[in-house]
Predict the 3D structure of the following.
Amino acid sequence: MQKKNALPIVIFAIMLVSFIRLPGYCEPVDTTFEQLKLELKNKGVSDEFITITENSVKRLISSRALLADIKSVLLDLWGEGRNGRALKNAVASVAELVESGDNTLEAAKITSGAAHKAESEGLNQFAVGMRVKKAVQDRKAYLKTLKN
């Protein structure tokens, strides 16, 4: 009789624990993205900017990047006036590095540094993109050596 009563209690306990959320770690990606979206809008960021970056930002959230770091990176890009394909590629590059185990702010420094250097050399947008892609590949190779 004792075992029959214990089973429902154990099942109830498991269900209860599965619904407990730790802020910033277990929240669904969409909920976290909506929170970030509101914070960015309060800072004056446009809907177009948010739409362009949405998929990469969700990748960052899924990679457990800190929300404050993601917000910082996006506000920096907003302040620089990045838009369109350059914006989309910049955030995607950061997300790629974070998924490879890099820190969000460090990933942003690497991608923006490569872009700024290429732009200062007068390269066209395609060449800037290739320079950033090369910097991302180099950083991923470096991160891989750290894991070994």
